[in-house]
Amino acid sequence: GALTEVHLDSLDLDLACAEAIATLLRAPGLRVLTLSGNKLNEAAMQRIGRGLHNHPSLQVLALSDQKGGANSTFAIKELLDAMETVPTLTKLRLGTIHDEALRRRYLSLENTHVSDMKTRGKKEVVDAAAGGAADSIAVPTGADDAGRASGSNQQQPGSSSEEASAAGKRQGSPTKASAAPRVDLWGDEAARIANSQETSLGRPNNEDDSLPWRDPATNYVLTGCSEWRSATKAERRMVIEAF
């Protein structure tokens, strides 16, 4: 698709989503991916590192504050090995790096990449990344927009489900059997992402968002979406795979 920025922070993503994230990282036009505050462990970081290798244009990757032991020495080494193959990557957010040798290596890679980007005449990209683009993403509530999106998909009076319910009661069937079918909220969202259509839940702009306006055609922000809490693991993986 045309997306260049995807923000999936604090969504409880874990190892089950790691392969889908690695696939997302292979999108050549992706420039910013933030995954802070999830549950990605060492094994997940290995898969993400493999997906990151030789990316042609990624500038910011945020992976800090994981709840699954992702800050292990081995995981960080894997990610730094991958960073070395991506000269455009000027910010790899890993949180605290306790190993002194790895910390020096990270700083050396970051400085080298920033210097190379400036040399190649991409100062505006460097300035955006050096300003902490990954850390400056505000957490939108998403409640109003998600609520409106959810509400727009509900059955209306006089719909076929109501008629089916009435028919069920006339036949003496249990009320439960005539309940309206569950709205496929995340299946629909995944289809919109896959078809590069306007999304309903990944809103890059919110009324209380102090950040500059972001183009919905190129930015996807799911952080703070209240509907995500009820998504199953399969639905979460399906959404990420849709990118």
TrEMBL record:
Residues 150-167 have a biased composition (Low complexity). Residues 137-215 are annotated as: Disordered. It comes from Haptolina brevifila. Residues 194-203 have a biased composition (Polar residues). InterPro entries: LRR_dom_sf (IPR032675). This is Uncharacterized protein.
